[in-house]
Write a structure and sequence with these properties.
The chain has 86 residues and is α+β, with helices and mostly antiparallel strands. It has helices spanning 10-22, 56-67, and strands spanning 2-5, 28-30, 48-51. The chain has a three-stranded antiparallel β-sheet with strand order 1-3-2, covered by helices on one side. The protein is globular. Residues 1-65 form the DUF2007 domain.
């Protein structure tokens, strides 16, 4: 297993796990149980997505595409240009 990404939140982690699993990638989230101690632990590096070595490169490509996604024209509110509200 390779740790390939550090999500910023548990919500982002769950979203990415779902995306990776829909592509047939076995994703594992480490640090989920540490989120309850956030007041006492440093925030960065608590969560980590890990995938099997053979699937790591494809998973990195999918996450890079996710991070680079832009809203489609017309899907963003006029008051917040460049932001997609789901």
């Amino acid at each position: 297993m390779q740790r390939i990404y550090e999500p910023e939140s548990l919500l982002e982690a769950e979203l990415l796990i779902g995306m990776l699993r829909s592509e047939g990638i076995q994703a594992h989230l480490s640090g989920r149980d540490l989120m309850g101690a956030v007041g006492e632990l440093p925030m960065q590096g608590l969560l980590g997505l890990a995938v099997p070595d053979a699937q790591a490169e494809y998973a990195r490509q999918l996450i890079a595409a996710y991070n680079g996604a832009q809203p489609l024209p017309g899907d963003e509110p006029e008051s917040l240009p460049g932001i997609l509200i789901c």
